[in-house]
Design brief:
CATH superfamily: Creatinase/methionine aminopeptidase superfamily
Order of helices and strands: HHEEEEEHHEEEEEEEEEE
Distance between the termini: 30 Å
CATH topology: Creatine Amidinohydrolase
Strand content: 15-25%
CATH architecture: Alpha-Beta Complex
Number of domains: 1
């Protein structure tokens, strides 16, 4: 599959989709507290996406084109040692948990994809480190985006932050191109060497979404064929934005109230 370069009109459509996805995370924040279940959070997001937001959910019924069962949630809810793709359900949040909410919506045929971490009550020192430093790593990766740069520059910037804070990088999952398709080319690794990989050109659109663990990097997929956890049950954190390569640098399409 070739990398699609977005036209000016398509870039505008991606901006709208990105802001729609961002609005879901803004909306749900006040509900994320001890005592609520991940399934209840999903119900709230589902109603908002399909109702007032006027969008489709890209994850409800998604199979990834493989043998997985259709995903049931309008969001992914990944708590503590869950790395990604956590299925919303009966798990009740408790004080001290950390959780990633990942949302992808479809607006007028284009996808907006973003995620952020939430604290439930006061986090432990190591949980705060995982969340804050993964956010720092994502920002470092985004700031490496520029025309004439390379995908390896993004991965290298993320890797430098992770290594500086003794966090391990999940390697089985990565960022991806996005547009009319949920997952397009290129793949955006969260490790790498400067000046390597595909050259970045204006109009490219992709996600930057590092997953960093407080323990070892190895993961395993649970029998539900979706939920991915750390093998050693160490904490994991992830942040994600959809980004556009511009003529002068980058644009983050999924900013929340202007903030990364």
């Amino acid at each position: 599959m070739e990398i699609t370069i977005k036209t000016a009109a398509e870039q505008d459509a991606m901006r709208a989709a990105g802001q729609a996805a961002a609005s879901v995370l803004i909306m749900i924040e006040s509900y994320v507290k001890a005592g609520i279940t991940t399934g209840e959070l999903d119900d709230i997001c589902r109603e908002y996406v399909l109702g007032p937001l006027g969008c489709q959910s890209a994850t409800i019924g998604y199979t990834g084109g493989g043998s997985r069962p259709p995903f049931t949630g309008a969001i992914c809810t990944s708590v503590n040692h869950v790395v990604c793709h956590g299925i919303p359900g009966s798990k009740r949040l408790k004080k001290g948990d950390i959780m990633n909410i990942d949302v992808t919506v479809i607006k007028d045929g284009f996808h907006g994809d973003t995620s952020k971490m939430f604290y439930i009550g006061k986090p432990s020192v190591i949980a705060r480190k995982a969340v804050e430093r993964t956010h720092e790593a994502m920002i470092a990766g985004i700031k490496a985006i520029r025309p004439g740069g390379f995908l390896g520059d993004i991965g290298f910037a993320i890797q430098q932050v992770a290594q500086a804070h003794q966090l391990s990088i999940v390697r089985e999952y990565c960022g991806h191109g996005i547009g009319r398709g949920f997952h397009e080319e290129p793949q955006v690794m969260h490790y790498g060497q400067p000046g390597t990989g595909i050259e970045l050109v204006p109009g490219m659109c992709f996600t930057v979404e590092p997953m960093l663990n407080t323990g070892r990097p190895e993961t395993k997929e649970l029998p539900d064929k979706w939920t991915v956890v750390t093998k050693d049950h160490s904490l994991s954190a992830q942040w994600e934005h959809t980004c556009l390569v511009t003529e002068t640098g980058y644009e983050v399409l999924t900013l929340r109230d202007g903030q990364m």
